[in-house]
Amino acid sequence: MSILNILSRTKLYWGLIAIFLIGVLGSPISSKGNNIFLSYGNLLDVLRQVSTTGLIATGMTAVIITGGIDLSVGSLMAICTVVCAMLLTVPGVTPAVVLGVPTVAVVALCLGILVTRFILLNIEKSRAGPQATHAIRLDSIRGLVTPGIVGVILCSLVLWYLLPQVGSKFGVLGGWWRLASACCSARSTASSSLPGGCSPSSSHWR
Predict the structure, then answer these.
(1) What SS3 state is found at 201?
(2) With contact defined as beta carbons under 8 Å apart, do 78 and 86 qualify?
(3) d(CA 113, CA 143)
(4) Which of 3, 38, 97, 108 has the fewest CB atoms found within 10 Å of its own CB?
(5) CA distances from 68 to 57, 62, 71, 205 (A)
(6) In Å, how far are 96, 107, 154 from 157, measured between CA atoms?
(7) Which among 5, 32, 168, 191 has a CA at the least distance from the CA of 88?
(8) How many Å apart are CA 61 and CA 89, to the nearest integer?
């Protein structure tokens, strides 16, 4: 294989590398002498901005491969963005919190299980060789236990990363718990200050 064939097959990656190098070389330098383009905050912003386009491109790739076409991508992205913004600003425990975090945990669990089974199954197929005529099957350890462990670990890592940020990112769950705690404290204080330790629902107030 000649060098020209290698370059033609990897031309997409060379373009990405060239864009990255242009960003690094053309980036300004902070007062501390650090490259702003390579800073953690800038790279996180870039990934956040392209995440929506990447998810849509992934879905559209599957649609095009199956021979279909979908013209509602733009409108669907717009309505999802508006609904997400509305859920994030509504006070109290919103569906964004109640459904979003468990859904991400379940997706991480299923993704860990499926990817692990796929990798182990391909390893077993490569060991069997192309001359294998029987169906490749995994035993209980590699087919169930190992993927389950990997899925639980991935789900735990996702929850460990997300749960401390729920109050600050959503801005509603933490305030809801603080409000509930304050109401409970005020109610207990008011009950203890009543004559005879009675509560408003007792016979003393009837």
Answers:
(1) coil
(2) no
(3) 9
(4) 3
(5) 14, 9, 10, 70
(6) 20, 13, 5
(7) 168
(8) 33
The Cα 73–Cα 82 span in angstroms is 14
Beta-bridge partners for 35: 29
- Per the CB < 8 A criterion, the answer to whether 172 and 97 are in contact is yes
Mean pLDDT on 161-168: 72
Q: Across-strand partners of 29?
A: 35
Which parts of the chain fold into alpha helices (H)? 3-9, 11-25, 40-65, 73-89, 95-128, 140, 146-162, 166-170, 173-192
* Cβ–Cβ under 8 Å, residues 74 and 53: no
Distance (Å, whole) CA 198 – CA 177: 27
Supply the mean pLDDT for the chain: 75
Q: Encode pLDDT of 1-19 as tens digits.
A: 577 777 777 877 888 888 8
Please say whether the beta carbons of 117 and 138 come within 8 A. yes
